[in-house]
TrEMBL record:
<dbReference type="GO" id="GO:0055086">
    <property type="term" value="P:nucleobase-containing small molecule metabolic process"/>
</dbReference>
<dbReference type="Pfam" id="PF00383">
    <property type="entry name" value="dCMP_cyt_deam_1"/>
</dbReference>
<protein>
    <submittedName>
        <fullName>Cytidine deaminase</fullName>
        <ecNumber>3.5.4.5</ecNumber>
    </submittedName>
</protein>
<comment type="similarity">
    <text>Belongs to the cytidine and deoxycytidylate deaminase family.</text>
</comment>
<keyword id="KW-0378">Hydrolase</keyword>
<dbReference type="GO" id="GO:0042802">
    <property type="term" value="F:identical protein binding"/>
</dbReference>
<keyword id="KW-0479">Metal-binding</keyword>
<dbReference type="GO" id="GO:0072527">
    <property type="term" value="P:pyrimidine-containing compound metabolic process"/>
</dbReference>
<dbReference type="GO" id="GO:0005829">
    <property type="term" value="C:cytosol"/>
</dbReference>
<dbReference type="GO" id="GO:0008270">
    <property type="term" value="F:zinc ion binding"/>
</dbReference>
<dbReference type="InterPro" id="IPR002125">
    <property type="entry name" value="CMP_dCMP_dom"/>
</dbReference>
<keyword id="KW-0862">Zinc</keyword>
<dbReference type="GO" id="GO:0004126">
    <property type="term" value="F:cytidine deaminase activity"/>
</dbReference>
<feature type="domain" description="CMP/dCMP-type deaminase">
    <location>
        <begin position="3"/>
        <end position="130"/>
    </location>
</feature>
<dbReference type="InterPro" id="IPR050202">
    <property type="entry name" value="Cyt/Deoxycyt_deaminase"/>
</dbReference>
<dbReference type="InterPro" id="IPR016193">
    <property type="entry name" value="Cytidine_deaminase-like"/>
</dbReference>
<dbReference type="InterPro" id="IPR016192">
    <property type="entry name" value="APOBEC/CMP_deaminase_Zn-bd"/>
</dbReference>
């Protein structure tokens, strides 16, 4: 599998280093590439009542707050070199701003792409904005 570029890996590691994960000890970073080509990053932020914010949700919020509305790609760097796929809630959040062909790539500490999926594979036959009558 191919590697991501060094700058992106460094950004993922910087973000993961800023994760606030005192309860799970499971720091995660995510970077979303928007339709404009800009990158937005986030890390998980836990709270004592366990209604925490995942890295993907943080990155998606940063993107939406900057005015972008389309996700092209999502990169996720978990701890310990093990693949860290998005949780169910994050799959739905990615789906909100993605097409079924949007890629999610799981990265290891050496920058290798461990696994890729489309959001259509991660969340098949999903509910989305087009199901809300407008
Ligand atoms: Zn999540």
């Amino acid at each position: 599998m191919k590697n991501i570029d060094e700058d992106l890996l460094a950004e993922l590691k910087r973000l993961r280093g800023n994760a606030y994960a005192p309860y799970s000890d499971h720091p995660v970073a995510a970077v979303v590439e928007s339709g404009t080509g800009r990158h937005f990053g986030g890390a998980n932020v836990e709270v004592a009542h366990f209604k925490s914010t995942c890295a993907e949700a943080s990155a998606i919020s940063a993107m939406a707050n900057a005015g972008d509305r389309d996700i092209r790609l999502v990169y996720v760097l978990g701890p310990g070199g093990r693949p860290c796929p998005p949780c169910g809630d994050c799959r739905q959040r990615i789906r909100e701003f993605a097409s079924p062909e949007t890629w999610v790539a799981l990265i290891d500490d050496e920058g290798r792409v461990q696994k890729t999926y489309t959001i259509g594979e991660l969340l098949p036959d999903s509910f989305g904005p087009d199901h809300i009558p407008g």
